[in-house]
Write a structure and sequence with these properties.
Blueprint lengths: L6 H12 L4 H18 L4 E8 L9 E3 L2 H10 L7 H4 L16 E3 L7 H5 L3 E8 L7 H6 L11 H10 L9 H9 L10 E3 L14 E5 L2 E2 L13 H12 L5 H24 L14 H14 L8 E8 L8 H26 L5 E7 L18 E7 L6 E3 L22 E2 H12 L6 H4 L15
Length: 456
């Protein structure tokens, strides 16, 4: 283990694996995989997860437009259906038409994303959600296939999306990718970076997530360049915090403190020469603020010695059981403005083909209404944006827009036809994870024949 890793976190997680009798082989395999992955990571790539907490309402995010399916949608969404006329400006014209004349339009608030779709820089994922293995309605009703535990629970499905396990999971698939590539980065601490707090998605078996604020790195206990106006006092405090004591726990704390102090100095110095990008990103938009600091960090990735980085940003407010039409468009508008600005920033930096952003959420919501809102659902719509994206296309299979139809398990909850594992495996493959290593990142991927959906 190096000073750039949290030994205590590793020991805790390795202990959990030892209960299954796999700790030794896991650590050995991880070391080999990490060395192999690092050896092939000569170029820079970044994945940016845009998580929408609360369960985004997919019914009013991507709306059926062809008359037949719009009529079904409007019947199911009485009182909440978006007017068809207002969808005409955001009608999506894919390079490959959907079967049966099916057409979709973006919600009007998502209009800033339309140019990205038309330019082939955005792909749309249809009916994607948490699964263990492929599942049909008949299998669900007969209980003849496995389903994720604790469906429709915010905490558990958020965790399942990010980690492949319910709340309490020790690591997520973003962090497990970090495990494979951190050895190839100049500072392993800067492999998994969270701009919105803490998320299991970025926790690895060895990789730890580094938190930043929208203004940049977070100082440990306010320890910046001076303490009480004195650089000498500041350095003395640093020495005390990072000094070994001979006590196992105290020494581990000192290592974590030193890692934090060193990373703060390194990132602060690098960002001092980074472009501010205030002219690209909108104001009064918390998601855009997070994406701006991610863009600035990407701009100094070479200075930081980074070859592979995984980022996490998020936005809340999507649990719209009521007042959907008053709240949801505003939220979508912020998502669209933030993601469009972020892509524009990567273009300006000359790294658009090296950065892929994608949306995620607890779950989709019911197509059926609950007064003036919608309830917890399952399958959902997601977007993938970036210069490497095979865009202007839909991926996956759209659910049948019908009450108690073949994809509705009841109450307007669509059974996903594409799994998060397939979605994640496609992103991981682009990132550089070999197919043989995908089960290390996504254990359930072994249950799927199609491991790469081809959208990037």
């Amino acid at each position: 283990m190096t000073d750039n890793q949290s030994r205590r976190a590793f020991l805790k997680r390795a202990g959990a694996f030892s209960l299954m009798g796999t700790a030794g082989s896991f650590v050995t395999n991880l070391a080999g995989i990490g060395e192999a992955a690092a050896a092939t990571a000569a170029d820079y790539k970044a994945l940016v997860c845009v998580f929408l907490f609360g369960g985004n309402d997919n019914g009013n995010t991507l709306v059926p437009y062809d008359q037949t399916n719009y009529n079904s949608y409007a019947t199911l969404r009485q009182g909440l259906a978006t007017a068809r006329g207002s969808l005409t400006p955001t009608l999506l014209n894919p390079s490959t038409a959907l079967p049966g004349g099916l057409q979709f339009a973006l919600a009007p608030a998502l209009a800033p994303l339309l140019p990205l779709f038309d330019a082939g820089k955005m792909a749309v994922m249809l009916n994607t959600g948490t699964l263990i293995e492929p599942l049909t309605k008949q299998q669900y009703q007969a209980k003849s296939a496995r389903i994720p535990p604790k469906l429709f629970s915010h905490n558990d499905q958020t965790s399942y999306w990010q980690a492949g396990a319910v709340e309490g999971a020790p690591s997520g698939w973003g962090g497990r990718m970090g495990d494979l590539f951190q050895a190839g980065n100049g500072t392993s601490t800067l492999t998994c970076i969270n701009a919105s707090g803490n998320a299991v998605y970025l926790s690895g078996q060895t990789a730890v997530q580094y938190a930043v604020s929208t203004g940049g790195p977070i100082a440990l206990n306010g320890n910046r360049s001076q303490l009480f106006g004195s650089t000498v006092a500041n350095q003395a405090l640093r020495n005390i915090m990072a000094a070994p004591t001979g006590n196992l726990i105290a020494d581990e704390h000192a290592k974590v403190a030193k890692r934090s102090l060193d990373a703060y100095s390194q990132v602060t110095s690098a960002l001092g020469a980074a472009p501010a990008m205030t002219d690209i990103f909108p104001t009064n938009n918390s998601l855009a603020d997070q994406l701006r600091v991610v863009a600035r960090l990407i701009s100094v990735s070479q200075e930081l010695g980074a070859k592979r980085q995984v980022f996490f940003v998020s936005m809340g407010g999507f649990d719209n059981h009521s007042a959907l039409n008053g709240t949801h468009p505003t939220l979508l508008g912020r998502v669209a403005a933030g993601m469009k600005a972020f892509h524009d920033a990567t273009v300006q930096l000359g790294v658009a083909d090296k950065v892929t952003a994608f949306t995620a959420s607890d779950f989709g919501r019911t197509i059926s209404v609950n007064g003036d809102g919608s309830d917890h659902g399952w399958g959902a719509t997601h977007f993938v944006v970036g210069g490497a994206v095979n865009g202007k296309r839909f991926y996956g299979t759209a659910p049948t827009m019908a009450h108690n139809g073949p994809d509705d398990l009841g109450l307007g909850r669509f059974i996903p036809t594409t799994s998060v594992d397939q979605y994640a495996a496609t992103l991981a493959s682009w990132f550089g994870v070999a197919e043989s290593d995908l089960p290390t990142v996504l254990p359930n991927i072994v249950n799927y024949t199609n491991k790469n959906l081809g959208f990037v």
